[in-house]
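Kindly review this record before class:
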Amino acid sequence: MTETFQLLGSLLGGLGIFLVAIGMMTDGLKLAAGSSLRKVLATWTKTPQRGIASGFCMTALVQSSSAVTVASLGFVNAGLITMHQALGIVYGANVGTSVTGWLVAAIGFKFNIQAIALPLIGLGALMKLLRPQTRLASAGLALVGFGLFFIGIDILKGTFEHVVARFDLSQFTAQGLTGMLTFLLIGIVMTTLTQSSSASIALTITAAASGMIGLYAAGAMVIGANIGTTSTSVLAAIGATSNAKRVAAAQVVFNALTALVAFAILPVLFYLITQLTGFFNLAADPALSLALFHTLFNVLGVMLIFPLNNRLAGFLMKRFCSAEETAARPRFLDKTIAQTPALATNAVLLETKLVADKLLAQYEKSQQPLDGLAIEQEIHTIQMLCQHITNFIVTVEQSALSEETTSMLAKLMRIEHYLFTCCHCVEKLAQRQPQKALAGHPELHTQLEEYQSQLGHFMRTSLEGQSMNTKAFNAALQELQELQQLHDDVKDDLILAGTNATLPIDNMVCNINGLSDMWQLTQQWHKAMLLLYLIEEQLNPQTS
């Protein structure tokens, strides 16, 4: 009973450290990521071929396909690379993990990657202590997470070490399909328990070399190890972003497909290996044969999946959709409408009005003492919707475009740009919440609230207006001038209060920056609404 509790405790502890490590890696990468890191990653994975090469090299270097796959999940989580780019890394990592078999065949299983875990943690902690609140500290956090990742894996391996050590493989035979499936299952279970396909492959090669199991049985176990290693990425995808979950699912699909094909043609593969070793005059010992087998079927898997890469990516993009992605889906746009420019223009107009309405709602929320993070998430959703609209405009059938329709689509593209800028303004207002800094200054607080309220009224009335006749245009222009005057008055009073030392300089600067954001919002919104009115007049001419 005591041993059972110890096993359970070690299992939970190892899983806990593993999940915390993944979170630290993701957070550290996200905070430390500057334009340079983003450019390097983008260059490494610019094409699927480069992604495969990068995945292979990184896995060959660290001797852990799990670490590379989890790192790619972390990159996707942090927004450093896209899901499409990460797929190449996953494919390459599968080929790269076969290097372990070659090391085992050549020098034995002596290389211990966990030896770098503690130095990584120590170095990361030192970076965080020496330069807190900097990118160096964030990079240190990622290093600590990377070190803890290996410690978590090591604890999980140690927990089941005695189970694997007592696993008598000789009691199983590989006679017929049932026997082969049994050894396939053994490979899956061992890799899942140890969280290391390297350990499973080393054990398999050792067993085959000692004559405990036959070559075909060992081959089935290696295939099983390839399937079992996906458990690491599945575990890492818990609580991750939608794209990270898609990458994990892609690895499962890729490894399962590779395993299925390799299992089906296993005799053919070993026949090819026999021919290759004979051609190069190599000793066809089990260790070499299995290392070559592992490499061969993983390369075969990449060759099979690569032509289907875009289809797989498209399939996965429709799965694991978050609430944010669902909300960011266009309501009026689809591929069929894009073939008819007249319908497409009207659909884009309706979608743009929907974006403007959502943006206005977030501006009104930004004036209230709400959670700024929730507003930022909504703004990000609106920005994604703007991007969808922009992409749709580009896909509208070019050959059927008239000069008038082209002009309207160009105006709509400009509107999306204006609204996108408005999103940034609202996001900054939600972060700053300048009115909080004036809690002890009632007059200034009232002035700022009045300006915010009038801006909201201006945005609402301009969005709900049905036509831009001369009277409506003059009224909007008059309200815009009043907003500018009020903006200038509030700014003058803030500067005066700061000069008289009745308002702290930090508070003064915060509110002036907030005013600048609101004035930019006013101007960009006015431009967007003016173009909207012009397009509506073109589509639905009315008498002024």
Summary: The two ends are 87 Å apart (CA to CA). The chain has a mean pLDDT of 79.
